[in-house]
Design goal:
Length: about 450
């Protein structure tokens, strides 16, 4: 078991990772070059991340130790967790520049202290990166692989908003290694941290590719669900929800991600699909699969635009409200949010846009409101961007308001008129018209 662990990078994954590792009882030393972020973490202990369960780890009587530089952070450590961004390049591949910057400092410490380290890379990297770029870089500093340093590739499968649960209850642990020594050390550590963990030890390139393939399989399931939604949309006697629920009951398929809804979005899935496409291109592998998944995703966004245009042209909507504007609940992240793309499209049609989101602090061109009450009063239609527990009480608000419920969250709402496609909106308008006609007739009889 490791007694001293360092975590470099304290972002949306790094800080929760550090707090999670503190549950092992090990001394956790941390570093991030963003001094303002570090001061914020010291004061609010990650409250801005909205990660469920994080507070329990913060108060486990094993506080994180912060350092002002990498050298001090790793001097007494046994294993270094590197959890930093690997931004996408224009060609779709991932950049390792930030990792290399960190390894530059790590190499200096190794040479100075003449001490070996296990370096555990948690960031997603392009397949082939460890052996073609990361190890050669350290060797160029005069270090010997699997003697002065040991590399592990150990990406975690987490989703923002549920990072702690994903860290505490992983489906399995993916580890790439070329060292029996390092593999045994990390396996022993995880066996002490988890109860009967499923550990998958692979070669570096196998592990790097597996990380991409897991996420791109998820994009496939989401695009497939939206394909089914498109198949069903013109049939009043077919429910896309019931069809997908039934398809998912087959154990070979499963119900997760089998739901009619929006396109895939966020900081991982879109770029992982592009990364796989680049990997195939670089290795002369025929791949129309990634293009088709992306095309369906783009078509799903275009279909949302068509509904908006229909609502403006036929139903004369002038205001539009978003219930959530980020890409999912429990996170400040709005990267690749399709709601933001919809917002821009709405504004291009001169439709006034409002939004209520309890997580986002960024300023957008749309007008932010502080409650659902305000959103309901100012919007002709409210769009549910994602499912969130904060939205559950909204069904109790007695506003007769059209809710575009892409996720079937308010389908049983007593007070709101819910629609899932534009044809449903037409039905609601007809129902409203029939109701008004009945009222007129009643008034004539009693007048």
């Amino acid at each position: 078991m490791f007694r001293n662990i360092s975590v470099i990078g304290l972002g949306k994954l790094g800080y929760p990772m550090a707090q999670f590792l503190s549950s092992s009882g090990a001394k956790i030393s941390c570093y991030d070059k963003d001094e303002k972020l570090v001061e914020k973490l010291k004061k609010n202990h990650g409250e801005h991340l909205h990660e469920i369960g994080l507070n329990n780890l913060v108060n486990n009587n094993n506080d994180l130790i912060y350092h002002n530089n990498i050298s001090d952070c790793i001097t007494d450590t046994e294993i270094i967790y590197i959890t930093v961004p690997t931004p996408s390049k224009l060609d779709g591949s991932f950049s390792n520049d930030i990792i290399i910057e960190i390894l530059e400092e790590v190499a200096k410490v190794i040479l100075k202290n003449k001490k070996s380290y296990i370096i555990n890379i948690n960031s997603t990297v392009q397949p082939g990166s460890i052996e073609s770029e990361i190890i050669p870089f350290l060797e160029s500093k005069g270090l010997i692989n699997n003697k002065n340093f040991y590399i592990l590739y150990n990406p975690y499968f987490v989703a923002l908003g549920s990072v702690i649960r994903n860290l505490e209850e992983p489906d399995y642990l993916l580890i790439g290694s070329s060292s029996i020594y390092a593999a045994k050390k990390i396996t022993k550590f995880y066996n002490s941290l988890y109860k009967n963990p499923k550990i998958r030890l692979l070669k570096f390139k196998e592990a790097e590719l597996t990380k991409l393939l897991v996420n791109t399989y998820l994009t496939t399931k989401i695009s497939y669900s939206n394909f089914v939604k498109n198949v069903c949309k013109n049939f009043d006697d077919i429910s896309d929800l019931r069809v997908l629920e039934s398809v998912g009951l087959d154990a070979r398929i499963g119900t997760k991600f089998m739901l009619p809804g929006g396109p895939y979005s966020g900081p991982c899935l879109p770029r992982d699909n592009l990364s796989l496409k680049k990997f195939c291109f670089d290795n002369n592998i025929q791949n129309t699969f990634s293009d088709e998944v992306q095309k369906i995703n783009n078509d799903t966004i275009e279909n949302l635009y068509k509904v908006i245009s229909n609502l403006k042209n036929q139903h004369k909507i002038k205001t539009f409200g978003f219930l959530g504007l980020g890409y999912k609940s429990n996170t400040q992240c709005f990267e690749e949010s399709y709601s933001l793309k919809m917002m821009n499209f709405l504004e291009s049609l001169n439709i006034k846009v409002f939004y209520y989101d309890p997580y986002l602090l960024e300023k957008f061109s749309a007008t932010k409101v502080n409650s659902f009450e305000d959103l309901a009063l100012k919007s002709d239609i409210i769009f549910l961007s994602y499912i969130d527990q904060h939205f559950n009480p909204i069904v109790q608000v007695k506003h007769e308001k059209n809710i575009w419920d892409l996720w079937y969250h308010f389908s049983e709402s007593k007070y709101n008129r819910v629609f899932h496609k534009v044809s449903d909106f037409k039905k609601l308008e007809l129902q409203k018209s029939d109701k008004n006609q009945k009222i007129i007739q009643f008034n004539k009889k009693t007048g």
